Structures are given as C-alpha cells and as structure tokens.
C-alpha cells in the first residue's frame, strides 16, 4: 500500500473552513432547511445551561461571548470553551478581588438533602429535577409570538437577598465539623505553572474550570466503590454573587457587578477509626460559574476525596490530586486527542518498517 502526503495547502484549508460554514447553513444536507440564523441573545437565554457550562470551562464570565462561541463552534461545548479561553488569555488584567462569601448570594435556588428544615427555608427554584424525561412535542413548532407573549406575562425568577446563614455553620458551631487547618491564599492558575503538591485553592480552581463530564467521572469513581465516600448535600445554592473589587483610589471594596454562581457543600460522616480521633463530619466544597449543579456537587466530592487522600495517603484515583487535576481539563484533553489527526507520517512509517523487517526476518527463519 502506498502513502502520499495530503496536497493542496492553503487552498485546501480554506475550502475546509468554507465547507464547515456551509454545514451550519444546511447546504451540505439534501432538502435541509436551516431556518433563520441563531441570534446571540436567543442562544444566551434559551440555551442558558450550555452557555453557563462554556463560561465555566472557558474560565471567563461573559454570557454574550459564550453564546457567540457556541454559535461559532456549531454547538460543540469543548470547541466553544476553547474559543472563550483563547480570548480570555488576551485580556488585560485590571485587578484582583478578595475572597468572596457565597453567603452573600442573591438566591434563586437553595436546597439541602441533609436537613428537612433549614434556616430561611428551602427554595426549589428553576430545576429539571422534578420533571419527567418525556418529550415536549409542543416545542417542535413553537409559535414565536406566543413564546414572547408568555415570557412577558410570567414574572421573572426573582432572586432573594442573601440573608440566609450557611447550613454547615450550625454544625461548625456545635464542633461537629472537621477542620482543614489554616486558610490558604488564593492561587491564580492562569499565571502559576501546575506543579505538585498542589494547594487546595488551586485544586478547586482547576476543578471549577474543568470539563463537566470529566469532573463528574472522577466523582463517580468514589460512588462506584473506589473510595469510601458517601456524601450528603448539606446545601446547594444557585444565585447572583456580588463581585467586590478594590476602588482604584481609596482601596475600599466596592461592588463592580455580579455573576451567576453555583455553590455546593457536602458532608460525610467518619466513624473515627483507631488512631484517627473521634467520629466527625467531613466537609467538601465546590463552586463554579453559572448554573451547573451536577458539576458543583462533583467538585465538592472530588475535593472531599482529595482531602481524605491528604490525610491518610491516596488509595484510590479520585484521592490523588495529580491524577485528578491532570485529567479533568477538557481543553487540554481535547487538544491531546485531536493532535492525533495531525500528520504522523514519519513516526508511523518508522514503526511500519520495523514491523515489516521483523516479519521478514521471522519468515526467513521459518
């Protein structure tokens, strides 16, 4: 079999890009009707969970740019996150904020599975948790006028002021919650090279920017028996968090805006094995941009698993920070996987010649 290099150069690449756009317009599928071009605002609001996922994995809170990236990537969340992260890398750094308290969120959703009654009460808010997974066939031919009229008639998802204490504060006040030592300073993972051992703030930052499915897969290993973790959601919050930045003249913290966040705290009981102290309640924490509850819970589970690995040595994959952090970044993983599409003629030909030579030698000895 003969092998030849792909010919065409820049002309072939330009044609490949043109064909990609034709696919978006439905030009490469017989009798396809692509409809009207998707508007950025339509993507931003009607595909809001996808927009939130792309913002989190791209590491930049900008719903309009995330919506544009989704349109440009034709719905591929990894490619869209790649576009957004590439843009973020070129933005100027204007300042840094202090640590923010999730207790200051303007909440649109707040639940706890650990307690039936919590201070301030539970708020179901917007969620698919209570729906049957059945098709809504009425959405196929949805009338635009009726859609706009219904949106105008319904009240918005009002967010309540953050006067609610954290659920775990009560456990902490009783002395039942295990501590994690001294507070550690924040780490800017976009400027600090990845090196191990990695502090907890950097681990949480990498998980928050990680690919949602990758983080979930790591957390799922602990549910499937690779670890003893069986947590309960102490509190899951979704809401708007005020962003406080130092005033350029006075240095006083002022509100520069707010971002939609999801925050989760899980608790797990530990029976107090010999030599490990009395029984206690272990805490895991997770937070990410946008409305992404599964990811926030998975981050908290990975955090708790790695903390257990810190305490007694990693015995399972999710307890090893190096294993977890090196395998949850979707853009890194996509780049490594996609690079196999690039020319590997020289290396493969070398392997092929070695195999042929070995096969010929064996045949001559037979």
Model description:
The structure is a single chain. This protein is of the alpha+beta class. Helix content is 41%, strand content 13%. Helix 2 (40-46) crosses helix 4 (63-72), helix 4 (63-72) packs across helix 5 and helix 9 packs across helix 10 (293-312). The protein is globular. The chain starts with 8 loop residues before the first helix and ends with a helix. Residues 1-5 have low confidence and may be disordered.
Count the helices. How many? 13
What distance separates the N and C termini?
25 Å
DSSP strand count? 4
Principal-axis shape? globular
Task: Trace the largest sheet across and list its strands.
Answer: 1-2-3-4
How do the helices and strands follow one another from N- to C-terminus? HHHHHEHHHHEEEHHHH
Helix content: 40-55%
Report the uncertain regions.
1-5
Number of separate structural domains: 2
Largest sheet: 4 strands, antiparallel
- Report the portion of residues in β strands: 5-15%
- Rounded to an integer, what's the Rg over CA atoms? 25 Å
Output the structural class: alpha+beta
Query: pLDDT average, as an integer?
Result: 84
Question: What's the topology here?
Answer:
Elements: H1 9-24, H2 40-46, H3 48-58, H4 63-72, H5 77-88, E1 106-111, H6 144-153, H7 167-173, H8 200-208, H9 212-223, E2 232-246, E3 253-270, E4 280-289, H10 293-312, H11 321-325, H12 330-338, H13 345-365
Antiparallel strand pairs: 1-2, 2-3, 3-4
Helix pairs in contact: 2-4, 3-4, 3-5, 4-5, 8-10, 9-10
